[in-house]
Design goal:
Layout (H helix, E strand, L loop, with lengths): L3 E3 L1 H9 L5 E4 L3 H6 L6 E2 L3 H5 L17 E4 L5 H11 L4 E4 L2 H5 L3 E7 L4 E7 L5 E7 L2 E5 L5 H10 L3 E6 L11 H7 L5 E3 L9 E3 L4 E4 L2 E7 L8 E5 L3 E5 L7 E2 L7 H19 L6 E4 L15 E2 H7 L7 H11 L7 H10 L7 H4 L7 E2 L1
Parallel strand pairs: 1-5, 2-3, 2-4, 4-5, 9-10, 11-12, 16-18
Antiparallel strand pairs: 6-7, 7-8, 8-9, 13-14, 14-15, 15-16, 17-20, 18-19
Helix pairs in contact: 8-10
């Protein structure tokens, strides 16, 4: 019997539309702990399956009327699991490219206000969050992390006029498609003022306003994670905080920095966060990333500022305590971040495979 396969986009559509499916993850426990598909079921069968030993799958007892998708890191060992389950009478599909390919899966959630709407685009397999701000059929896109066709299709379907495409900072965990989306729409990308980028862009000044329909978006310089990091205050109701402030953590200050530089950036981060937490406590915080798998639940990843302060112990510490606590908790840097930064500075991705380069979970937050 020929083995069936499923690609990331089809599985994404199944989950997005609520189709019933059992996703069986056969990777080692440590790999699953780093990154997983929401709602998937785990059996650590990897080593035994590589020996063609079917015994670990004997515990599988799914409803045979519901299809099963098997998953591993790259799609090879999971194909063995798919064959075993198929021979046991299950309608089984192997996920092509495994979790590497899943890193480009995505879903959306929306937040609606009187004068504007925000669509949160979520890379479910990577944790990267990007945003489309809409008011009176005008739009601004921030932190383009998915293939540009996804945003372009959304903009075309809604018949939106794209006025601005911006980044919050020069990213290290994903390739920024901001330049590409801007160029496809015949506008210049907007990025926080810096002397690093090797392509033309509109530098964003501190305190600059962007007009979109009936609202304004204000830039707030919030250095620390990077020196150019910028947050965006939308109509005084929402703040996009990037990697400066998460819903229950803060950004890491050590990327491309030695110990002394990391300490200086941690101090900058403390003062940037103080600037943000002095805003109205009812303002909604929308972060640039999440370290948890993103569910297909249409629920935006957000929190009121007062809840962020309440749920983030680091925010209650003095400057010295904050800096020392942060430096002690910094996780190991991602192996690929220097290469990603280099490619984002040039804006040229023609010589890299995004799936390979961006592989791995997000490690930007410290809680």
């Amino acid at each position: 019997m020929e083995q069936k396969e499923i690609n990331t986009n089809t599985l994404r559509e199944w989950l997005d539309t609520g189709k019933k499916v059992n996703i069986l993850d056969v990777r080692p426990f440590i790999e699953r702990e780093e990154l997983k598909i929401p709602g998937s079921i785990h059996i650590d069968a990897y080593d035994e399956l590589k020996k063609n030993n079917p015994d670990p799958l004997e515990v599988v007892d799914f409803d045979k009327s519901i299809p099963v998708v098997t998953v591993c890191a790259g799609g090879k060992t999971s194909s063995i699991a798919a064959e075993i389950l198929q021979n046991s009478g299950y309608e089984t599909y192997n996920l092509q490219g495994g979790m590497k390919s899943w890193s480009l899966s995505w879903n959306t959630a929306s937040i609606v206000f009187d004068n504007f709407e925000i669509i949160q685009f979520r890379r479910a397999g990577k944790g990267c969050l990007s945003y489309v701000i809409i008011s009176d059929q005008e739009a601004m896109v921030i932190d383009v992390s998915l293939p540009v066709e996804i945003y372009k299709e959304f903009l075309d379907q809604r018949e939106l006029i794209l006025k601005y495409v911006a980044d919050i900072h020069i990213h290290a965990d994903h390739l920024s498609r901001t330049k590409e989306l801007a160029e496809k729409n015949k506008i210049k990308p907007s990025l926080p003022s810096n002397d690093k980028l090797n392509y033309p862009f509109n530098p964003i000044a501190y305190g600059q306003y962007f007009s979109i329909g009936r609202i304004n978006v204000k830039s707030i310089h919030t250095p620390g994670h990077t020196l150019e990091s910028t947050s965006y205050l939308i109509d005084g109701k929402v703040v996009l905080t990037g990697d400066t402030l998460f819903t229950n953590g803060v950004g890491r200050p050590d990327l491309k920095a030695d110990k002394e530089e990391a300490e200086k950036k941690a101090t900058l981060l403390f003062h940037s966060i103080q600037k943000l937490i002095r805003l109205d406590q009812s303002i909604i915080v929308l972060p640039g990333h999440t370290s948890q798998p993103v569910a297909f639940d249409n629920q935006p990843i957000q929190s009121e500022l007062k809840e962020v302060v309440k749920n983030t112990p680091l925010l209650k510490e003095s400057e010295q305590e904050f800096v020392q606590s942060l430096l002690k908790r910094i996780p190991n840097p991602p192996e690929n971040y220097l290469k990603i930064v280099e490619k984002n500075i040039t804006g040229d991705f023609t010589d890299v495979n995004p799936i390979d380069l961006e592989a791995g979970a997000n490690r930007c937050a410290i809680s």
